[in-house]
Amino acid sequence: MGAIGFIGSHTVVQLLNEGFRVSIIDNLDNSITEVVDRVRDLFGPKHSQNLEFHQGDLRNKDLEKLFSQTQFGALIHFDGLKAVGESVANPRRYFDNNLIGTINLYKVMTKYDCKKMVFSSSATVYGQPEKMPCVEDFELKTMNPYGRTKSLLPDYQRLSHRLNTSKLIENSGEFQNLIVFNNFEETLVLLVPLLASALEFGSVAAPALVALLKMGSWLLTEEFSSKLDYLRSLVLSSALLASAILEGL
Ligand SMILES: O=c1ccn([C@@H]2O[C@H](COP(=O)(O)OP(=O)(O)O[C@H]3O[C@H](CO)[C@H](O)[C@H](O)[C@H]3O)[C@@H](O)[C@H]2O)c(=O)[nH]1
């Protein structure tokens, strides 16, 4: 579920590597089908037979249709909206997508006798913890609607396993920086032409442009690429963990 997103897609690669048959359902809210094409290219036609993609939403009949066609041994649930700020501005959207969608998923799983799930939660369920890193028995003190959707779900129905992939990630200061700079890189591409034309007209934006360009050059340094390697290893380790859990199910 939601497996052509960032963490999900890496997990799919790992699962295919381990010889699992994988079926994805994703509504493309925050992803593109080219990701599936890329995974297929990576594995070639023979091994790609183990991969199916269905565009669909947990809140409607797409899900029931999928379960009626395939008997699933276990499920990994990455499907969800995940922006804290947006969840504060539009909590209904978050409750509808994350909560109603997952409750529907639980119902369909029960109907088709699939009892095993790995659930991708979030470190935001611990609010602002007094110490880091968070561990899973910390008190749940979420402070935003997104976090509430994540903390209520395991309570709603305790299925056999829960994997807090985002805890792995969000506990890392390095990763936080990387995310900021990743976004920054994209922002830079959009902003530079605008700032450059502002500069041309002698605008006050000039100092901002200089600062942005300095930051941009940092993206090309070894320090940045070592952080990228760190990111890759984090993503892969969460994927490995998921497959190890699935194997033990
Ligand atoms: O209603 C929805 C909402 C989203 N998606 C899909 O779910 C995937 C989510 O992937 P993202 O890249 O947006 O998210 P990440 O992989 O970075 O995030 C993962 O870690 C997060 C930690 O905060 C959450 O646990 C999230 O659910 C989990 O996918 C996307 O393909 C998106 O299209 C759906 O299928 N249905």
How would you explain this protein's 3D organization?
The chain is mainly α. The protein folds into 2 domains: 6-171 and 231-248, Rossmann fold; 174-218, no CATH class. It has helices at residues 6-17, 34-48, 61-69, 84-89, 91-111, 145-156, 165-170, 173-200, 206-218, 222-248; strands spanning 22-26, 51-55, 75-77, 117-119. The chain has a two-stranded parallel sheet with strand order 1-2. Helix 2 (34-48) links the parallel strand 1 (22-26) and strand 2 (51-55). Helix 8 (173-200) crosses helix 9. It is globular. The protein starts with 5 loop residues before the first helix and ends with a helix. It binds galactose-uridine-5'-diphosphate (GDU). Galactose-uridine-5'-diphosphate binds next to helix 1, helix 5 and helix 7.
Topology-level CATH name of the largest domain: Rossmann fold
- Average pLDDT number: 74
Task: Assign the CATH architecture of the largest domain.
Answer: 3-Layer(aba) Sandwich
Order of helices and strands: HEHEHEHHEHHHHH
Query: Which ions and ligands are bound to the chains?
Result: galactose-uridine-5'-diphosphate
Give the amount of beta strand, in percent.
5-15%
Number of discrete domains: 2
Distance between the termini: 18 Å
Query: Mind telling me the CATH superfamily name of the largest domain?
Result: NAD(P)-binding Rossmann-like Domain
By secondary-structure content and strand pairing, the structural class works out as: mainly alpha
Q: Characterize the overall form.
A: globular
Oligomer: single chain
